[in-house]
Design goal:
Elements (H helix, E strand, L loop, with lengths): L1 E6 L14 E6 L30 E3 L4 H9 L7 H9 L11 E7 L2 E6 L13 H20 L2 E7 L15 E7 L30 H8 L8 E5 L2 H20 L1 H9 L1 E3 H7 L4 E3 L2 H8 L5 H4 L5 H15 L3 E7 L4 H20 L3 E4 L11 H10 L7 E9 L20
Parallel strand pairs: 9-10
Antiparallel strand pairs: 1-2, 2-3, 4-5, 5-7, 6-7, 8-11, 11-13, 12-13
The structure holds flavin mononucleotide.
The site of flavin mononucleotide has 18 residues, from helix 3 and strand 12.
Length: 417
Amino acid sequence: MIIGLCVRDSKLKNADIDSNYIDIYILPKASHMTNRRHILMTGAASIIVIGAGVFGARRLTSDLSVARKPWTVAGNDFEDPRMNALAYAILAPNPHNRQPWIADLRSDNALTVYCDLDRLLPETDPPNRQIVIGLGAFLEVLRQAAASQGYDIEVEQFPEGEPYPVLDERPVAHVTFNSNANTQSDPLFEHVLSRRTVRENFDQTLEVDAATLNQLGAVLHAAHGNFNWANDKESVETLKDICNRGWLVEVGVERTHQESTRLMRVGEKEINANPDGISLAGPVMEVGKLVGILEPEKLNDLNSRAYQETINFYSALIDSAMAFGWLTTDGNTRIDQLNVGAGWVRTHLAATKLGLAMHPLSQVLQEFPEMAGLYKEIHDFAGASNNQTVQGLFRYGYAKFPAPAPRWPLETRIADA
Ligand SMILES: Cc1cc2nc3c(=O)[nH]c(=O)nc-3n(C[C@H](O)[C@H](O)[C@H](O)COP(=O)(O)O)c2cc1C
C-alpha cells in the first residue's frame, strides 16, 4: 500500500495543517511498493510512504471545526454582558493551551475568576508563574470585550490574598461590570479573533524593522512591564542559541518532556474531544496516529523517529527567528504576573495588527532545577538585576498565520454550569 500526498498548496506544514492544504489518500497496494515497511518523513513531511498494510482506500484530513467553534461563537449575544465578554476572554493566549480559567457568575453584575488547579503545569512551570500570566491575558481580553459593549470593569486582583509558592483555591480576581456610555473601545480589540501563536518557519527574506518592534512596546501601560527587542544579527544568533539549548533541556529531562507529551492531542478525534493542550492535526499527524508512531510511549522514546522529528521541528522554528522581544517586570509578585499577562496579549494583538507573527519561546524561563543555568543566562542577557524578571520571550518574523487553536466551549468554563 502507498499513501499518496496530493499537494494543493505550495507548502506542506508539519503540524496543525488545515485540510485545504493537502489531501492524503491511502491507496490499495501498488506493486512496486508492496514490500516496503517503513515510513519516510522528511523535515517538511513531504513524502510519506508506508509499507504493506491492510487499510482500504480512504481519505485523511483533520476537521477541527468542533474544537475551533468558540472562535465563531464570540460575538454572539448571550443576553448577559459578562457572558458576551467571556466568549472573547477564553480565546486569550495561555501556556500549553491549558485554559485554566473558571468564571463564577453567581453574583449580579460581577464575576469571580478562579484557576482550575487541575490545569497547572507542575513540571515546566513549578511556581505557576506562566499560568498566572495566561490568567492576566484572559482578564485583559475580558476588559477589552466588556469595553466594546459599553462596560468598564473593576478588577480586584487576588481579593483574598496572593498565593505563594503555588496557586491555591482562592480567587484570582473579582470583576465588577459597570455600564458606562462613555467607555471607549480599545483599538486592539478588533484583532482578538485574528491573533494566533504562529509556530511556522519565518520568511528569511523579510526583516523585522525597528519601527515595527517599537510599536509593540508602545501599547503597554506602566504596570504591564517593559518590552525590549533585538533584531541585529549578533543578538538574534545569541538568542537562538540560548533558546535551542533551553529546548534541548526541556525535551531531555524525562519529567518535563513527559508533561508535554501527556498533553499532546493527535488527530481530529482526539483534539475535538479534548480541545486543549498541544494539538497536532493535519494529514501527516492523522497518518502518524493511524500507524501508531505518535503514541505517547513512542514520543517518550528518546531513540524514536517521532522524538527526533519533534526536536528538529521546534529547533527549525527557533532558527528561523528574524527578531526577538522580551517582557520584563521589576518584581515578580502574583499581581506583577497578572499585569504582565495583560501586556503580553497587548503586544501580541499589536503584532497581529501589523501582520507580524509572534511565537513565545518559554523554555529558558521555566523554573525547574535543570534549567537554572539558562534561566540565569537569559536574565543576564536581558540585563535583569535584583528582582527583575524576564516574564516572556518571543521570536518574531513573517509567515502565514495558522487556523485558530482549539478551545473548550464557553459553558465548560463556567463554575457549576
Ligand atoms: C505564558 C505563556 C507561555 C507560552 N509559551 C509557549 C512556548 O514556549 N512555546 C509555544 O509554542 N507556545 C507558547 N505559548 C503559546 C500558547 O501555547 C498558546 O497561547 C496556546 O496554545 C493557544 O494558542 P493561541 O495563542 O494561538 O490561541 C505560551 C503562552 C503563554 C501565555
